[in-house]
Amino acid sequence: MAKKVEFMMGNHAVAEGALYAGCRFFGGYPITPSTEVAERMAERLPQVGGRFIQMEDEIAAMASVIGASIAGAKSLTATSGPGLSLKQENIGYAMLCEIPVVIVDVMRGGPSTGMPTGPSQSDIMCAKWGTHGDHPAIAVTPASVQEQFDETVRAFNLAEKYRCPVFVLTDAIIGQMMEQLVIPEPGELEVIERPKPTCKPEEYLPFDMDKDFVPLAAFGSGYRYHITGLHHNSDGFPTNDPVLHTKNTIKIIERLDKNYDDIVKVEEFMTDDAEILVFAIGVSARSAKHAVVEARNVGIKAGLVRPLTIWPFPERHLDRILNKNKIKGIVVPEMNLGQMTFEVQRVAKGRCAVEGLYSLMLDPILPSEILEKIRRFV
Amino acid sequence: MAKKVEFMMGNHAVAEGALYAGCRFFGGYPITPSTEVAERMAERLPQVGGRFIQMEDEIAAMASVIGASIAGAKSLTATSGPGLSLKQENIGYAMLCEIPVVIVDVMRGGPSTGMPTGPSQSDIMCAKWGTHGDHPAIAVTPASVQEQFDETVRAFNLAEKYRCPVFVLTDAIIGQMMEQLVIPEPGELEVIERPKPTCKPEEYLPFDMDKDFVPLAAFGSGYRYHITGLHHNSDGFPTNDPVLHTKNTIKIIERLDKNYDDIVKVEEFMTDDAEILVFAIGVSARSAKHAVVEARNVGIKAGLVRPLTIWPFPERHLDRILNKNKIKGIVVPEMNLGQMTFEVQRVAKGRCAVEGLYSLMLDPILPSEILEKIRRFV
Amino acid sequence: MSYDYAKYLRKGKLPHIWCAGCTYGIILKSLIRAIDGIGWAKDDIALVSGIGCASRLPGYVDFNTLHTTHGRSIGFATGVKLANPKLNVIALGGDGDMTAIGGNHFIHACRRNIDLTIFVFNNNIYGMTGAQYSPTTPKGAWATTSPYGMAENTFEITSLAIGSGASFVARTTAYHVAHCEKMMKEAFQHKGTSVVEIINACPTGFGRKNKFKTPASMLTWMKDSAVNIERAKNMSPEELVGKYTIGVLHKVDKPEYIETYDTTVGLKK
Amino acid sequence: MSYDYAKYLRKGKLPHIWCAGCTYGIILKSLIRAIDGIGWAKDDIALVSGIGCASRLPGYVDFNTLHTTHGRSIGFATGVKLANPKLNVIALGGDGDMTAIGGNHFIHACRRNIDLTIFVFNNNIYGMTGAQYSPTTPKGAWATTSPYGMAENTFEITSLAIGSGASFVARTTAYHVAHCEKMMKEAFQHKGTSVVEIINACPTGFGRKNKFKTPASMLTWMKDSAVNIERAKNMSPEELVGKYTIGVLHKVDKPEYIETYDTTVGLKK
Amino acid sequence: MAKAERIEIIEKWCKGCEICVEFCPTGAIEMRDFKVAVKDLEKCTACMQCELRCPDFAIVIYKKDKE
Amino acid sequence: MAKAERIEIIEKWCKGCEICVEFCPTGAIEMRDFKVAVKDLEKCTACMQCELRCPDFAIVIYKKDKE
Amino acid sequence: MARIDIRLGGSGGQGTITAAAIMGYAAVYAGKKAVQTKSYGPEARGGAARGEVVISDEDINYVKVIKSDILVALTQESCDKFIVDAKEGSIVVVDDFMVKNKPQGNFKVYSLPIIKTAAEDIGKSMVANIVMLGVINQLANLLDFDKLEKGVLSKVPKGTEELNKKALRAGVELAKAAMK
Amino acid sequence: MARIDIRLGGSGGQGTITAAAIMGYAAVYAGKKAVQTKSYGPEARGGAARGEVVISDEDINYVKVIKSDILVALTQESCDKFIVDAKEGSIVVVDDFMVKNKPQGNFKVYSLPIIKTAAEDIGKSMVANIVMLGVINQLANLLDFDKLEKGVLSKVPKGTEELNKKALRAGVELAKAAMK
Lengths: 378, 378, 269, 269, 67, 67, 180, 180
Ligand SMILES: Cc1ncc(C[n+]2csc(CCOP(=O)(O)OP(=O)(O)O)c2C)c(N)n1
Ligand SMILES: Cc1ncc(C[n+]2csc(CCOP(=O)(O)OP(=O)(O)O)c2C)c(N)n1
Ligand code: SF4
Ligand code: SF4
Ligand code: SF4
Ligand code: SF4
Hints:
The complex is a heterooctamer, with 2 copies of chain A, 2 copies of chain C, 2 copies of chain E and 2 copies of chain G. Chain A is of the alpha/beta class. Chain A has 2 domains: 4-183, Thiamin diphosphate (ThDP)-binding fold, Pyr/PP domains (Rossmann fold), CATH 3.40.50; 267-375, 3-Layer(aba) Sandwich (Rossmann fold). Chain A has helices at residues 10-20, 35-44, 58-70, 81-96, 124-129, 145-162, 172-176, 242-258, 260-263, 282-297, 315-324, 340-348, 367-377; strands at residues 5-9, 25-28, 51-54, 75-79, 101-109, 115-119, 138-140, 165-171, 178-182, 226-228, 266-269, 276-279, 302-307, 309-311, 329-334, 353-358. In chain A, α1 packs across α2 (35-44), α1 (10-20) packs parallel to α6 (145-162) and α3 (58-70) packs parallel to α4. Chain C is an alpha/beta fold. In chain C, 34% of the residues lie in helices and 17% in strands. Chain C is built from 10 helices and 8 strands. An 8-stranded mixed β-sheet of chain C has the order 2-1-3-4-6-5-8-7, with helices on both faces. Chain C is globular, with a radius of gyration of 18 Å. Chain C starts with 23 loop residues before the first helix and ends with a helix. Chain G has helices at residues 16-29, 76-82, 114-122, 128-140, 145-155, 161-179, and strands at residues 4-11, 33-40, 48-56, 68-73, 86-95, 108-112. Chain G is of the alpha/beta class. The radius of gyration of chain G is 15 Å and the shape is globular. Chain G has a 6-stranded mixed β-sheet, sandwiched between helices. The chains are: A alpha/beta, C alpha/beta, E alpha+beta, G alpha/beta. The C-H interface holds C 15, 17-20, 53, 127-128, 130, 204-205 and H 41-47. β9 (178-182) of chain B pairs antiparallel with β2 (33-40) of chain H, so a sheet runs across the interface. One iron/sulfur cluster (SF4) binds at residues 4, 23-26, 28-29, 44-50, 61 of chain E.
C-alpha cells in the first residue's frame, strides 16, 4: 500500500510524532521558533481526547507536564533557549524523581534573547548540564522532518523505558522547514506503553534502588505513594543518609550507561574505510553528508558520524571507529562556538586531531566549508 | 602592626569581601546554605550606604542585581543549586550585555531540592553551561574562609575588568564553616573601581566590538544608550546581521581567553618534581593537600594542582605541567559524579591516565581515599 | 478521643519534622478531619506542595502526595488535574512558597478558576530557611533579612486572590480548629479554584524574636485578633484596627476551567 | 504640527518595527508628550522593558533604555531604582510580558509600592510570537493556541494591581490620545508604584482573525467601549455591559518602599 | 468529678511545646521533664482543648462512657 | 477655507494602515499606492486627528498662521 | 531532475515564504523531493523575509539554497542582497515596480509587473506570491501545471480558490509574454 | 599543639554547633588555628545536629574530624553513630541521662550529668552546651581557662554572661570530679 506522503513543517512533525507515541497532554509557553509545536498540539490534542494548556510561563509549563505525567498522561512541552534556561529547575526535578516527559528544544541563537528567528546548535551543553547537580540526560537529534516525527516517537519510548526526561534537540531550520513526511501506520513504529505496577499497593516501592526499573504508578490508580525532589529512599520518602542518596543517584545515571546500546543511535555514513571523519548532528549533519559525498567524489576517504542521540554522548561508537580505523582527523561542524568538539576531543584522547568548525551564521554551515576542513587533513 | 584575626563563617566572609570590594547592592532570595551571605549583607549594607533587597524569587533577584549594576552599583547575589538554575536566563543576559555582577553559588547536594543542608561540588558544569547559547564564564573557587574573602574581592575585580558576571563557586562546608580571617586594611588588596567613559556622550559605543574593553556608563550619568539581550551592534541596538553578532559573541568569549594569565589563578603545591598529580578545588583540595603531604611522607612524588579559577578552565597550567613532567596519572577528587574530570581528560589528550574520585557523601572526601588513588599510580 | 487520625496518617512517620509548638500539626489535624468529613476516597486525592516547612505536610498523609519544587506546586497540580480531572487536587504551601516565589502560579490559578483547592499556610516568615522575611511579614517586624525591621509593605493574600479572579476565598487560623475544618470543607465543595489562607504560628522563626514568648501566646494572639466576617460587618473601622476577618470572604459563580475547555474544544458536548 | 517629537526620538531609528496599524506607535507619541509635559531631563529617565512588540519601544526614545528578558523588566527596574533613586524609572511591556510570565514581579512591585511607573500595553494577545492567547484574550476569541476559542478566564489587570496593593491604578486606551497622555502624567507624579493599563490594538495578531477588518475599526471599538470612570458612576450595570472604564481607578496614600527602607535602616534620618 | 477516663500521652511524639498545658482550663496537665504529664486526672473536664490543639498527636483524652 | 498650510507625508515611514484616512472627518486625505496621500488640502480643517493617531510619525499638519 | 535551488525574496507579508511552501508541496505531490526553508526577522510585518525551496529527484542534503537557479526579488533590498548568489545562466525575476535598479550579470533577468498584475488584474495584491509561482513555473518548466495548480488550490484559504487560480494563470501568461 | 579533632553530637537546638564555634573562636583568640564545621538536617529544631572543631598550631587542611580526640554525645543516636570514629585512647563524654547505652571500647568514657547540671544547677537547659565546653576543656586541657571564658563571654547573647560563666565553671567542676 502506497503511503500518503505529506509535506509538513518540522515542528508539526514533532507534534504528530508525539500524538503517534500516545502523548495526551501538552503544557507550554510560546517561544519562537518552537511555537508551531504548541499550536499544532492545541489543535490536535482534543481530537484524540487529550488536553492542551498554555501556562503562564515556562516554569509552570514544565511543572504541568511533570504533573500530568505523574497522573498518567504521556506529556510534551516545547521551547527554545530562554525557555530552556527557565525550565531547568523543574527538569532536574523530573530527572531525580524519574518522571518521563519529552522536552523539545528548538535551538535558536543565544545567549539571552539573542537571535530569536535565527537557528543555532548552541544548547547542546545546556541540555546536559543546565540543571544543577548530577543527573541523567538523554537527548535525541533529528535532522529531517521525517526524523522529527520518528525521533519524537523514540524520545517518548526512551522516556518511558528509562523513566526520565528526554530532550528532542532540534533547531530553527529543521523545526521550521517543510519536507516530505510519511506518517507510519499505527503499529508500524514501536510505541512503548507505560507499564503498570503489578505488585500489591502496600508493597509498591516507586523508587526501588535495587531494581533497574520500576513502573511508575499513575496518581489515582490505587497506588498511593510519595514523590519528593529531596533525595529519597526506595519508598519515596526523604532520606538524609548519604549512602542511600549516593546509591540512588548513581543508579539513575548509570542506568543510561548500562543501556547505551539501546539508547545511543548513530548513523555511520561511509565510515568503513574512512580516514577522516566528520562528526555532526541535525542540520549541520546534512551539510556534512553533502560534503562527505563531495569528498568521496574527489577521492578523499571521508566518513560521517551522525549521532541521533547526543546524550549520552556516543563515545563508544567513536571509540570503536578510532580503534579500528587509522583516523587522521575529525572535523566537528557545529552552529555554535564549540560544544560537541570538546566532547569529541575528550573521547579522542589524543588519538587523532580534532578540529571544530564553528559558525554563528544564520544559514547552515556550507558543505564547501566542511570540505575545506576535510581537505586540510589529507 | 598586628592585624586583628577574626573567626568568621565562610558565607559572612564573602559578604565582607564584597563590601571591601565596594559592593553597594545585594538582591537575593534565601536558600540554604547560602542564606548567611544575604543576612550579613542585610545588616551591613546600610552601614556603608548601600541597599539590600530580598526579591520575590531568584529570577527577580538576578534581574535586580543586573539593574543595579547598570545604574552604577557593584552588586552581589548569592544562591545555591535550585536558585542557580532559576537565575540562568538572566545570567545569560548579563553575559551577553557585558554587565559586571558577582554571583555566589554555595553548592549543595543536587539535583533538584536534593540535599539542602549537604555540601557538594556538583554545580561546576552548571556554572559554565547552565544558560543557553555560547557565552563567557568566570568562576573562582575559594577553599578557606580567608579565600572566601579574598576571592570575592578578586571576583569583583574580574567582573569589572572583563565586564561579565563572575561566579564565586563555593560549597556548604566552606560557606558555613568558621575559620580565622584577617581582614585586610583598605588599600591592601587591589580594588578595581569601575572606569567611567571619557568620550563625548554622542560618541559613546557601549558595546564597541572593535575595542577589547569599553567602560560601562552608569544609567543617569549623562550617557544615554540602549541595552538589549538581543544580539546587538556596537551602539547597543539590535542587529540581525550574523557577521556582526558572530564578531561580538566571539569577542566577549575570547576576551577571557586572551587574558587567561590575568584571570586564571592556580596554586601548584609540590608539582615541581611531581609524577602524580591531584587536581582539586575547594574543600576537596584541602583533603587533597593533606593527602599529598602524606604521600610525600611515604616517598611518593605527588603534587597538587588547585585552581582558584575553574572557569576559564586552567588548561594552560595543566598543559605546561604535562609537557614538563613525566606524569603517571592525575587524580581528580570531586564531590559529584564526575565533572572536572571530563575537562582534565580532555586536556590530558591521552598523555597520562586520569582518574576521577567521586563522592556524594556529605563529608569531604577523605585524605586516605585520595591517597589510595595516588598509590595506584605508583 | 475526639477523632482518630490513624486512618489517614502514614505509618511510622511521626514525630513530624516540625518544631515544638509549630501550628502546622494543628492544621494537619483539621485537614484530616475535613477530608474525612467530605468523604473523599484516599485514592482520589492528590496533595501537592512546594518547598518549605508547610510543604512537608503531604509526607504524613496517606494520599497521592507530591512534594515539588519551591513555589511551583500549583503548576504541578494543574498538570495532575488536567491529566486526570477525577482527582481531587489540593495544593498547599507556606506564604513564601505560595505568594513569594510562587506568586505567579497562584494568581494564574485564581484567574483560570481551575478546580483546585489551595491552602496558604501563612506564618508571616520563611520558616524552613531560618526566618527571613516573607511578603506577609508585618511592617517593622524582625527577620534575619530585616534586622532593622521589615520595610516592605505586605500582601493581603485574600485580596490578591480576589483581585486575580479566585471564585472562593476564605481565611481561618490554626487556633480556630473547627472553623478551619469548616473552611476547608467548604473549599473542597466549591467548584473552581478555592483559596484558604490559614494563619499559622512559627514560634522558632517568627515568634521568638518578635515578642511572642511561647507558642501558646501566638495562638492566643490569633484568637484575639481574628473576627468572624459576619461579626465584622457590624463593627466600626476603629474596632477593627489590628484585627483581621475570618470566614468566607468571597464566593462567586464563575466558569470552571476544565469544563469550559472541554466544552470549547469539543471533548464534552 | 501639534507637537514635535524629534527631541525625544533617537535619530535614524524610524520606521519602527511595528506592523501597519499597530497602535503602539500612538502610545509612543502619548508617552513622549507626557514626559515632555512633566519636564523630566532625558538623563534622569530610565525606560525598562521586557520582550515582545511593546517592549521594543525603549529603542526608539533617547533615554537610558533597557530591553531585558521576557517578563522581567520590573525586576531589572527595581535594581536600577534602588541603586539610583534619583532616576525616574518606567517599566513597560505587553499584557503577556507583564501579566503572564511577568505576573509575579508585577504583583510584588505593587505590594512594595516602590516608586516605579508601570505601563501595561494590553492588546489581548501575544503579538511578537504570532498571536497566541494571553491572560487577557477574551473568552471565545481565536488565537493560534486557542483554535477552538479562548477557554480560560481572563485577568482584570487593574483589579490584579489593586488586589496586590498598588497605590495608583489607571486605565486608558490608544484611541484616547490626550487621556492617555494625562494618565501617564498622573502616574509619573504619583509617589509609589503606579500602574496604567493601556488598551491597544494588534491588528496583525488579534484583529484580523477576530472580526476587526481594519486597524481603524479597532480604535473605533476602543472609542465605543471605553467609559470614563466619572461617567460610569452614573450608569446602570446594564448600560455598562461590554464596556470598560477608563481614568484613575484607584489612588491611595501608602508608604513608598525606598523611603521606608532608608528610614528603617538608618540611611535617612 | 472527672469526665476523662484516661489521658494518653505519646511521649515520643510530645515536643514539649506547652500548648496543651496553656490551654487547659483546669490545670489537669503540667510540664514534666520537657514533656507534658498528667497532673490531676480528676480535674480534667474532657473539654478536648489539649487534644485538639496539640500539633503533635501526642495527647489523647479518653472520655468516660456516658453514665 | 483650508486651515492647513501644508500636509507633510513622510512616505518612507507610512505603512499604509489607513487609520488617518478613516479618522479624517472631511476626506482631505486618501490612500494611494498603499500609502496616504493628500486628496484635497482645502478640505483639511487641521483637526489633527490624523497626526495624533498616526502610529508611524508619518503625517504632519502645518496649520496656517492665525490670520 | 537534478537539484533546483529556488529563492524567493521580499518583505514580511508578501507571501514569499508561503509561495515556497506551496511550490514544495506541489513538488512532493508530483513525486519529487523538496525542502522549503525560510528566513525572517523579528517583525511580524515588513522586514526582510525570504522563502526558499529546493526541489530534486534525489535526496536533498543541504537544505538551503547554495546558488540559486531561480531568484525572485520583490524588493530592491532582497535583489541587491541575493543577486550575488545567482548561478551563471540562472533565472532572475524582479518586480518591475519595486526593483528599480535592475541587476546586471551573467543570468537572464525578467522584470515583470508581478505586484501590479495581482493588484490590478486580479484585484488583490495579496496574491502576488501566486502570480510569482505561475511565472517561475513557466519560465523554468518546473512542474506539470496541473500539479502546481492542484497544490496551490489545496493550500490557499477556502473561498479564495478562484482568485488564486486566476493569479496563477496570470503569472503563466506574464512569463509566456516575457519569453517571447 | 598538634591537631585535635573534637566532635560534639546532639540534636538540633542543643547548641552543639554553637559550642564548636565558641571553642574555635577561643582557640583562635588564644593564637591557634581552628576550623569549626557543622552538620544538620532539614529540621529547624530536633533532628541530628553536630558541631565539630579542629584545633591545631599548624595549618588545618582537612576541615572535618577524621578520628575524634574528643567526642561528646548528648543523644544516644549521636553516640551510636560517631563512636566508631573515636580514636584509641581518646576522650568520650556522654550525657548520663540521654545516653543510656554507654559505649564500650578502647577509649575513656565519661558519663556526666551535663544537661541536668545545666537545667537544675544553672537553671537553664539551654546552657548545656557551655557546660559541655567546660567539661572537655578541663578533661583535655585544651585552652587556658581564661581565654576560653573570654571566648564564651564574647559570643553569648548580652545579658546571659553570668549564666554562661556559671555554666562553664560547672562544667569544669564536673570534669574535675570525674577525673578524680
Ligand atoms: C528555588 C528555591 N529557592 C529557595 C529555596 C529555599 N527555601 C526553601 S523553603 C523557603 C521558604 C520557606 O518559607 P514558606 O514558604 O513561607 O514556608 P514555611 O517554611 O514558613 O512553612 C525557601 C526560601 C528553595 N528550596 N528553592
Ligand atoms: C523566556 C521567554 N519565553 C518566551 C519568549 C517568547 N516571547 C517573546 S514576546 C512574547 C509575548 C509577547 O506578547 P506580549 O507580552 O503581550 O507583547 P506584544 O508582543 O503583544 O506587545 C513571548 C511569549 C521569550 N522571548 N522569552
Ligand atoms: S521553623 Fe517555624 S514553620 Fe518551620 S517547623 Fe519550625 S515553627 Fe514550624
Ligand atoms: S504583531 Fe501586533 S503588537 Fe506586534 S507590531 Fe504587529 S500589530 Fe503590533
Ligand atoms: S481535656 Fe480539657 S481539661 Fe482535660 S486536660 Fe485537656 S484541656 Fe485540660
Ligand atoms: S501540645 Fe502536644 S506536643 Fe505540645 S506539650 Fe502538649 S502534648 Fe506535648
